[in-house]
Amino acid sequence: MSEAIFKQAVSTILGNENIYFYWKGRIALYALLKTMKIKKGDEVILPGYTCVVVPNAIKYLGAKPIYIDVEKTTMNPSFNHFLRAITPKTKAIITQNTFGLSTQVDEIAEMAKEKNIYSIEDCTHGFGGTFKGKPNGSYCDAAFFSTQWNKPFSTGIGGFATVNNVELLTELKKVNQSLVQPTIKDSMILSALLFARDNILSPSNYWQLRSIYRWLSKNNLVIGSSEGKELNSVEMPKDYFKIMGNVQYKKGVKNISGIYQLLEKKKKNAELYTEFLSKEKKYHVEKELHKNHSFLKYPILIKKRDVFENRALNAKIDLGDWFCTPLYPVEKNFKLWDLNLSDIPVANILSKQIVNLPTDTEKPLKIIEFLKDNINEII
Ligand SMILES: *Cc1c(COP(=O)(O)O)cnc(C)c1O
Description:
Layout: H1 2-14, E1 19-22, H2 25-35, E2 43-47, E3 50-51, H3 53-60, E4 64-68, H4 79-85, E5 90-96, H5 105-114, E6 118-122, E7 130-131, E8 134-135, E9 142-146, E10 159-163, H6 169-176, H7 184-199, H8 206-218, H9 228-232, H10 246-256, H11 259-279, E11 297-301, H12 305-314, E12 327-328, H13 345-353, E13 354-358, H14 364-373
Parallel strand pairs: 2-4, 2-5, 3-12, 5-6, 6-9
Antiparallel strand pairs: 1-10, 7-8, 9-10, 11-13
Helix pairs in contact: 1-10, 2-3, 2-6
Pyridoxal-5'-phosphate (PLP) binds near residues 50, 51 and 146.
């Protein structure tokens, strides 16, 4: 029941009927790669500025992730980055709408098609946003989305795949036959976390609870986004290939309803940030990029991370550290994922300088005040 309603809501926003739900977004990606018959010896091109769970899905199938660099202005690879990395072994490419920004995805998808290579759009940051007037996820053979805590709308954890190339559908349905159901324990823990977030979290205890939650998930005591094995190995965790459960469908129905209002607020706040930062001649999202940006977060660059983060904490500014490493949140042993930092010089520097401003805030001026007070720390 909830599943059908949720599917209808997603389908209406994306203009696509071919939607398949999973326990997490990364599992949707894995299902797509498997459907595309990605296997040992194949190469899959992806941004060298992403979440580690993306190359994990490639490695689980025995294929090789080929990382490409990003442009400083967009934090995405350009068309030419993709083009240069293609070899006879390339089977698929993954584009990404980093922080909600799509770039050149139409041309990239077209080029892949001409070369008989599959294309996938990582829309985990971009649900509800558009590229040249079409919903994100419209251009490639397939796309995947995340509904994890901090993504455009949340089911606690969760995700889904959408398919544009209908030739993939038969095989995807076959692949999905081996999905397992969430356990009762999975569902209970997730329900408890969702309840806590909706009923216990308030502005007055937010900062205290935030540090407790971070401590718990670091120590693997709650369902964080990733389990230890995903962050220190390239072996698939047991029961990884899991479908979405009822708790998530219900939450999805509820939370998707406010998406357009939320997007509008994010865009407005981002405009304020850009106006301030451009006047101060600091790094900012250029005005002409705003149209295709859904601003899940607003990236800025800073000189010294620890100094800036401490000041933000003291000022109670909810600063994010998303993508503070090229394979977020992994900080070392990049070789395990076949990443050479020398292949991604721009992403490597960005990862050292980046912090992200919240875009869903009711108090953008408080944040701009904070930026003003710390203007010398900003690049
Ligand atoms: C969050 C994220 C994912 C994975 O989504 P999950 O639902 O947590 O599996 C993949 N790619 C990027 C860029 C992300 O930020």
